[in-house]
Specification:
mainly alpha, HECT domain-containing protein
């Protein structure tokens, strides 16, 4: 397994809460990571 294919998440109380947090992270993190 490589880190490019692995996303480690904390335990969430529900799938909806996980979706909410992931969408927030994606929105706030746009343009923050540049991989080459």
């Amino acid at each position: 397994m490589t880190c490019a294919n692995y996303l480690k998440l904390p335990p969430y109380s529900s799938k909806e809460r996980m979706k909410e947090k992931l969408l927030y992270a994606i929105t706030e993190g746009q343009g923050s990571f540049h991989l080459s």
